[in-house]
Amino acid sequence: ILNFFSSTRLFQVLSKFESFSPNFLHVFPAITFDFVRKVGQKYFVSNKERGSFQKAADFCDQRGLELALPQSEEENHMLLQLMGQHEKRAWININMRKAEGNFQSDMKNRPLTFTKWGERQPDQSIQDSGCSMAAEDGTWRVTPDCSLDADIICQL
């Protein structure tokens, strides 16, 4: 359908649908992903791709989204369900460089309202280069190796 319409025509068609559902255009990007999970008012989306922290952040940003960051136990559980089968880990929207070393805010410097740090985490010994990920057991950890392959999961 996307190849059939020009971008202007597609916007006109989608605008008609918006009258049926005010949130339609907000969630439209989700339909382009292989996996979509709704939890509360948030959607987690993924194509089951893996990559470095920078690749993950760029992937989400290029689509007008941001890396996943659970704000509740329910959201954290849903994030785990979207993780791949091997080396279950996913990048989350906390980066030491952006969080100014305190791991108390996300990459846009919004304060964290929910955390699920594992034992001895966040690792304060990792200076200016740490990146955060959710692990298979549902806890979060900081790694100095931001080039690791981890699942890329975005949110909207």
UniProtKB/TrEMBL annotation:
Its main location: secreted. It comes from Poecilia mexicana. InterPro entries: C-type_lectin-like (IPR001304), C-type_lectin-like/link_sf (IPR016186), CLec_Tetranectin-domain (IPR051663), CTDL_fold (IPR016187). Keywords: Lectin, Secreted, Signal. The keyword Lipoprotein does not apply. PANTHER family: C-TYPE LECTIN DOMAIN FAMILY 11 MEMBER A, TETRANECTIN-RELATED. One of its GO terms (molecular function) is growth factor activity. This is C-type lectin domain-containing protein. The lineage of its organism: Eukaryota, Metazoa, Chordata, Craniata, Vertebrata. The keyword Secreted applies. Residues 43-141 form the C-type lectin domain. It is found in: Secreted. GO terms for cellular component: extracellular space. One of its GO terms (biological process) is ossification.
